[in-house]
Amino acid sequence: MMPDFLTIAGAAKFFGAARVLDNVDLGVKRAEFVSLLGPSGCGKTTLLRIVAGLLTPDAGTVRLDNADITRRPPHHRDIGVVFQNYALFPHLTVAENVAFGLEARRAPRGETRAAVARFLGLVHMSEFADRSVRALSGGQQQRVAVARALAVRPKLLLLDEPFSALDRKLRETMQIELKRLLRELSTTAVFVTHDQDEALMMSDRIAVMNRGTIEQLADPATVYHRPATGFVLGFVGLSSRIAGEVVAAAGEEVVLATPRGKLRAAGTLASGTKAFVAVRPERIRLGAGGGDNELELPLRDIVFQGSKMQLHFDAGEGDQVIVEAAQLPGLPLAPGAPVKLSFAPADALAFALDAKP
Length: 357
Known about the structure:
A six-stranded mixed β-sheet has the order 6-7-8-3-9-10, with helices on both faces. Strands 13-12-11-14-20 form a five-stranded antiparallel β-sheet, with no helix packed on it. It is built from eight helices and 20 strands. It has two domains: about 5-235, Rossmann fold (3-Layer(aba) Sandwich), CATH 3.40.50.300; about 240-355, CATH 2.40.50.100. The model has no long low-confidence stretch (mean pLDDT about 90). By secondary structure, it is α+β, with helices and mostly antiparallel strands.
């Protein structure tokens, strides 16, 4: 197995009496793109700043390419950072901003000019080389910030929500372009975001953070389809949830008694546990399923979302059932009408009720 290129071990950080990071461990492979995903205040930016050297951990170590960099100053870590506000120099041109890091390292002028030309080309900003950064749009400034960070060819690139100020269409374009660029350059990157769609689209692996800890570290498909905790389930994507009590357990499958009947789901909970069944909206079928879990619920609303439709059902207090479908079946569906639904036990997960988000 390939060794970790970046290793964070036992990282802890306090601000006053508040513990912001609680003994966090994280390993990132060379050329891997890992996202730190979580709500505001979960510790993701604090962890990123510790790696960058902008904060000192109260405990733990940071190693990069087999070297302990825990106490090194930021400018001796060989790490590039793209901040949320881009942090460009307003008095410099686009080319001068990109050249800044190379000039600070006293790179030869010819090498600097070649690097500036190359990285402005990679981010499609060559024609703006002599323009003031103050004359650029937000998306253009973001491209310049990425080019500046990459021009020095850092061992590690850190990105702190760099797309948050962009409109949705531009943000999606930049996500695709950045992913392509980092892959082309084989750059190792750690990316901070609170946007689940952004993390799912861009990452090789996602570290879902909550209250200063990592609740799950896995590839996007695993995080989405097999969330490790109720928090991960609730934070990443939508889910239908029906509460009940475990009445049977065998192997890795349980049976819950719910107000809507008995439901089977993947899980290892003990009989008598108060729990809930969770299933992603696209895994629920309209109509009976022939031996699968079945429900009959009144339709509350239909939401048109372009390529798909989202159906919301009345499932009782505290529960929710949402179905996503590319098209509706050829039958009348109106608010209040009862609709039969079904889903496979293998597509459902059971979590203890105290894990409910």
